[in-house]
Amino acid sequence: MDLIIARQLSRKLRNGTMLLQDINMSVEKGEILAVEGENGAGKTVLLKALLGLTPSSGDLIVDDRRFKLGDAYPIKAGILIENPSLINEFTAIRNLRLLATLLPQVTDDEVHTVLRSLNLDPTSRTLVKNFSLGMKEKLGIAQALLGHNPLIVLDEPTNALDDKSKMNLVLLVRNYRDLGSTFLIASHDQDFIKQVATRRIRMTEGHLNEKSQLV
């Protein structure tokens, strides 16, 4: 069953540049869909268009409901796109607790669990401004995972992660999928994609092509 359906989805700048052109695709419930492509291929723009975060033309159907820019998004989504939205003067746990105020179902135990699952210490008093790039990336991933949302969108999540952290992320994504989350992941990290994706599609200059079906 499809969670998201896009038909003729396009994004055009005022100067005529086409960032997305006639995208036809679907995201099935329970899959881990990887969007591949080089830098500048349009992966991030596609994620934003599918989430209603950037203007686009065409049809977008989310959870069987037609979505228009400006509407409330039909489903809850955990999102990490581009740089994590972090408050540098807060600790890791304070950042997550702030986000949890918007997610009534999230308990403080879950906040602790998500941090530990990414090897971040919930008791640490270190401020985010003193984090390494890898630690900031992990905290951004933690924000996206918090709440076990039906849709989790990750944009280049392995940036700044070491090999051990990447393997841990693979296991986390698989676990959250087993718990009912659908994943949409943009990445150029081939090793990560091969380990985690159930389906892969490729972007080239704003166009989308089905690449392969993986089990």
Structure description:
The protein is α/β, with parallel strands linked by helices and 215 residues long. It has one domain (30-54, 76-213): Rossmann fold (3-Layer(aba) Sandwich), CATH 3.40.50.300. The chain has six helices and ten strands. A six-stranded mixed sheet has the order 6-7-8-3-9-10, with helices on both faces. The protein has a four-stranded antiparallel sheet with strand order 2-1-4-5, covered by helices on one side. Helix 2 crosses helix 3. It comes from Pediococcus damnosus. Keywords: ATP-binding, Nucleotide-binding, Transport. One of its GO terms (molecular function) is ATP hydrolysis activity.
Summed up:
With 215 residues, the protein is of the alpha/beta class. The protein has helices at residues 43-50, 92-100, 108-117, 133-145, 163-178, 190-196, and strands at 2-12, 18-28, 32-36, 57-62, 65-66, 77-80, 151-155, 182-186, 199-204, 207-213.
Main traits of this protein?
single chain, 215 residues, alpha/beta, Rossmann fold, six-stranded mixed sheet, four-stranded antiparallel sheet, 6 helices, 29% helix, 29% strand
Main sheet specs:
6 strands, mixed
Instruction: Count the DSSP helices.
Output: 6
Q: Using the alpha-carbon principal axes, give the shape.
A: globular
The ordered string of helix (H) and strand (E) elements is EEEHEEEHHHEHEHEE
CA radius of gyration: 17 Å
Number of strands: 10
Integer count of domains: 1
For the record, the CATH class is: Alpha Beta
| Spans where pLDDT lies below 50 across 5 or more residues | none
- What spatial order of strands do you see in the largest sheet? 6-7-8-3-9-10
CATH topology: Rossmann fold
**Quick check: average pLDDT?**
94
Helix share, percent: 25-40%
- Structural class of the helix and strand makeup? alpha/beta
CATH superfamily: P-loop containing nucleotide triphosphate hydrolases
Task: State the end-to-end CA separation.
Answer: 17 Å
Beta fraction: 25-35%
CATH architecture call: 3-Layer(aba) Sandwich
Protein name: ABC transporter, ATP-binding protein
GO molecular function, one term: ATP hydrolysis activity
Pfam families: ABC_tran
Keywords: ATP-binding, Nucleotide-binding, Transport
